[in-house]
Amino acid sequence: MKNLICCFIISGLFYCHDVLAQIDTTLLRRAAPDTSRMQLNMDAVYNRPFLSFGKLPVALGGYVEANWQHLGTNGVSEGHQFQMRRLTLFVASTIYRRIKFLSEIEFEDGTKEINIEFASIDIEFHPLFNLRGGVVMNPIGAFNQNHDGPKWEFVDRPVSATQMLPATWSNVGFGLYGKLYRKDWVYAYEAYLTNGFDDKIISNGENKTFLPASKANPDRFEESFNGVPLITAKTAIRYKKVGELGISYMGGVYNKFKEDGLVFDKKRRLHVFAVDFNTTVPFTKTWINTEWAWVNVDIPETYSQQFGNKQRGGFVDFVQPVIKKDILGFERSMINAVFRVEYVDWNNGKFNETGTTIRDDFFSVVPGVSWRPTSQTVLRLNYRYNWQSDIFGNPAEKTAGFQFGFSSYF
User: Fold this and answer.
1) Closest CA to 248 of 279, 210, 294
2) What is the value of pTM for the model shown?
3) Distance between CA atoms of 297 and 182, rounded to whole angstroms?
4) What is the pLDDT of residues 77-130, one digit of tens each?
């Protein structure tokens, strides 16, 4: 089925190429992101470059990511690895003046995974009251919404956003969103009811509490696992002279507690809280971006203590512009020095028998350099150093090495 989909899309792209080759390219136009107003992370879904043709109601876009890496763990390496991380396609349309559609389809690791990450209709009634329905991106934290590769200076996505929280986590549902501008301030909110998690978050091959395991369940796009909606809500505020602060919540029932009217377990819930913040230091132009989250899961008494009922983690990124000048024919290109610190504790608690701390944590530092020949393309060189501890706190497993890659909108 995946091969058939790929063939269909590739054939369509070649067809479009042949047609566009016969068209006056002056009619093609690149719709740049709207920068006339202060942007929030929630605006990322539409804040992308699209290519449109004449008066056609459909605009196209996307981005691509590829990289090389050479990493070793405790002195053992798999050598040189080349990876095609993802190819993402956007299709957007203004159906009517206040009715919009946008879809985002992602191909990961070649075509190992094909996901519909977003496919929603937006109906705008009022700046503070708008309806969104379809496959929506659950707004937990900032990265889940603002995850496009060309916007980031690092080859890897944050571990806390991908292995503690389920990155690019989306579900079928409906919700409301809105924004209010007041001089140098902008306020916004989002709230959705969607399908949600299943019991794979504690019954999985990782042998630990692992929220991303539910992403492997394609049935969430056609039915709820237990009939109880997942609630996701976020509020954000941005002050032009300081930055953006976001607070979000996601929670619901993850287990199947009844079947055909027969109740056989209590409702077991999970709750996720996240805080995100980004700012630019005025004098040095240093961009700082951070996100931290806390996960609470009701674990059955029959499960061992290696399944944590509390998790926490996050990251902090520093991006320092170093050079802004014409380089190799690219006008006003930018070279940045970058640094990331990230931490995840998959089991924040103590052993019942001894009272000692349960570890199962991860710590990483990632210095690097990035070059942006244009704002929509980035080349990245990172050095990654990780410490990974097991639940007993044995000497940490250390991973280190270099990564190089690029990401670009098209």
Assistant:
1) 294
2) 0.88
3) 39
4) 999 999 999 999 999 999 999 999 999 999 998 888 899 999 999 999 999 999
Interatomic CA distance for residues 169 and 115, integer angstroms = 10
Give the CATH number for residue 275. Answer: 2.40.160.10
Whole-number Å distance between alpha carbons of 159 and 361: 11
* Cα 106 → chain centroid: 12
Q: What is the pLDDT of residue 25?
A: 38
Strand locations in 138-268 (E): 170-182, 185-194, 230-239, 243-253, 258-259, 262-263
Q: How many residues does the chain have?
A: 410
Domain hosting 150: range is 26-409
Structure tokens at 228: 């109880």
- 18 within a domain of the structure (yes/no): no
What is the identity of the amino acid at 322?
A: V
Cα dist. 341→221, 289, 290 in Å? Answer: 35, 11, 10
d(CA 155, CA 150): 10
Conformational region of residue 328, where left means phi above 0, alpha means psi within -120 to 50, and beta covers everything else: left
Q: Which two tokens stand for residue 31?
A: 């719709």
